[in-house]
């Protein structure tokens, strides 16, 4: 049974998955999605039937619902494995026939990267919370391996597209660079990041600001909370929470900062908090 809160989160996350800015500079546009465009109860049951804490898998379920239940594409295949003799050489996220009768190969991803001008991994300054993942590395694999795979091994594909959503997080001391990676859209979603020793910055926030730690898989849509939501913390409360967290482990923490608006709290900023040695001291935690 899915709770009312989780059902509403699924609705907000699906809307974000379709309507949020693309990370890709040359992305294919899709029609905006409205709440009245789909059966919200059916979405809730679909998500409840496919529980997964990994953000990427959750995103896949949302996109699959959009393709099957909203767009109504035909001949839909998900996670089609590509084999070469006896070994698997790759997997296609989605194969389907679209509304215009085009056989389509779709690759999707939801990614989060922290901009680090003073450090790089493999030549990239856009590094994931798990530093083994970088924007440049992901783009190379997507465009050089994953997208060509369909046409190389499946006959009849006439359209190959990618949907990549997510956010880029910038340190408050560093401006957004004028020169971005070629594949990164300048209109990407944004947030901030700090290190654990910099959590004193919360004391500079308005006294009526509230904070909450975002739990996987709900890293997608902007947070909305009722005034009496007991998961909300004051600026002193979030600082204490983060101090306790980093005393026990080095995993990054994703925080939502909310401000009062129209009788409830709405997200005003999103903040990754990483350990002081990141990206050198990075804990692998797949999204």
Task: Tell me what you see in this structure.
This protein is α/β, with parallel strands linked by helices and 287 residues long. It is 26% helix and 29% strand. The protein has one domain. The chain has helices at 4-19, 40-49, 55-71, 135-153, 235-248, and strands at residues 74-84, 87-97, 103-115, 126-127, 159-170, 189-195, 210-213, 224-225, 253-261, 264-274. A hairpin with a 5-residue loop joins β2 and β3. It starts with a helix and ends in a 13-residue tail after the last strand.
Keywords:
alpha/beta, DUF1853, 287 residues, globular, DUF1853 domain-containing protein, ten-stranded mixed sheet
Helix-strand layout with pairing:
Layout lengths: L3 H16 L20 H10 L5 H17 L2 E11 L2 E11 L5 E13 L10 E2 L7 H19 L5 E12 L18 E7 L14 E4 L10 E2 L9 H14 L4 E9 L2 E11 L13
Parallel strand pairs: 3-5, 5-6, 6-10
Antiparallel strand pairs: 1-2, 2-3, 3-4, 7-9, 8-10, 9-10
> Kindly, what is the distance between the CA atoms of the first and last residues, rounded to a whole number of angstroms?
24 Å
Pick out the low-confidence regions: none
| Proportion of residues in helical segments | 25-40%
Tell me the number of structural domains: 1
Q: What amount of the residues lies in strands? A: 25-35%
Described by strand count, sense and barrel closure, the largest sheet is:
10 strands, mixed
- Overall mean pLDDT stands at 92
Structural class: alpha/beta
Helix segment tally: 5
How do the SSEs run, as a string of H and E? HHHEEEEHEEEEHEE
Radius of gyration: 20 Å
Q: What spatial form do the alpha-carbon principal axes imply? A: globular
Number of distinct beta strands:
10
Organism: Stieleria marina
Protein name: DUF1853 domain-containing protein
């Amino acid at each position: 049974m899915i709770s009312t809160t989780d059902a509403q989160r699924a609705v907000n996350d699906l809307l974000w998955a379709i309507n949020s800015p693309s990370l890709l500079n040359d992305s294919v546009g899709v029609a905006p999605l409205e709440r009245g465009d789909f059966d919200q109860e059916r979405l809730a049951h679909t998500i409840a039937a496919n529980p997964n804490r990994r953000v990427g898998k959750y995103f896949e379920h949302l996109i699959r619902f959009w393709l099957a239940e909203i767009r109504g594409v035909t001949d839909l295949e998900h996670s089609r494995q590509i084999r070469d003799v006896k070994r698997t050489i790759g997997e296609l996220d989605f194969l389907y026939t679209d509304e215009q009768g085009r056989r389509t190969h779709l690759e999707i991803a939801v990614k989060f990267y922290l901009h680090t001008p003073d450090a790089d991994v493999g030549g990239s300054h856009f590094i994931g919370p798990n530093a083994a993942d970088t924007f440049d590395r992901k783009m190379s694999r997507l465009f050089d391996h994953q997208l060509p795979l369909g046409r190389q091994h499946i006959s009849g594909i006439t359209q190959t597209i990618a949907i990549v959503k997510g956010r880029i997080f910038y340190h408050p001391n560093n401006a957004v660079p004028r020169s971005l990676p070629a594949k990164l859209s300048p209109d990407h979603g944004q947030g901030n990041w700090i290190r654990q020793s910099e959590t004193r910055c919360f004391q500079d926030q308005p006294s009526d600001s509230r904070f909450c730690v975002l739990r996987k898989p709900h890293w997608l849509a902007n947070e909305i909370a009722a005034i009496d939501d007991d998961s909300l913390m004051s600026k002193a409360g979030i600082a204490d929470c983060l101090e306790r967290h980093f005393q026990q482990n080095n995993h990054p923490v994703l925080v939502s900062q909310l401000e009062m608006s129209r009788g409830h709290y709405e997200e005003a900023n999103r903040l990754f908090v990483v350990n002081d040695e990141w990206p050198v001291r990075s804990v692998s935690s797949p999204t």
